[in-house]
Amino acid sequence: MNNTKFKVWSFISVMVGAAIGIGITYSIQGMPVLPVLIGYIVYGVILAIFLFFLGRSKIPDTDERTSVNVRNFFAYGSTMLIITLFFIIFVYHMFGNESIEISTLVIFFSVAFAILTLGSFITRKL
């Protein structure tokens, strides 16, 4: 898939996701619809401007060093994620809690996913 098709399909997928999000927000009573709609429209405009002005150089995006760096990052990152999770569970247990709420785990894994995603983009660009 060339770069232009990727830009178009990523923009379409973000807008479809925004429409689904607005539909879910609208279906729940008491949720503000207009601020969410304005936020998605502004996000779509910013994304479209960014994708339109994103230049393409003649240098290839990846090479052997990039794949090795990304592989090493995910190896170290996933290991540190597991060590951190076990440490958090250990400390949580030492404070006398016998169970962990699901929302706590959801927050932890959401933050871990965001950190690993951001780190992979940074590693890919190095």
Describe the protein's architecture and organization.
Keywords: Membrane, Transmembrane, Transmembrane helix. With 126 residues, this protein is mostly helical. The chain has four helices and no strands. Helix 1 (3-27) runs antiparallel to helix 2 and helix 3 packs antiparallel against helix 4. The mean pLDDT is 77.
Order of helices and strands: HHHH
Q: Count of helices?
A: 4
* Shape field: flat
Oligomer: single chain
Mean pLDDT comes to 77
Classify the secondary structure makeup into a structural class: mainly alpha
Which stretches are low in confidence, meaning pLDDT under 50 for 5 or more residues running?
none
Main sheet properties: none
Gyration radius, rounded: 20 Å
For the record, give the distance between the C-alpha atoms at the N and C termini, rounded to a whole number.
23 Å
Range of strand content: under 5%
β-strand number: 0
Please estimate the helix content. Answer: over 70%
Features:
126 residues, 4 helices, 79% helix, membrane, transmembrane, transmembrane helix
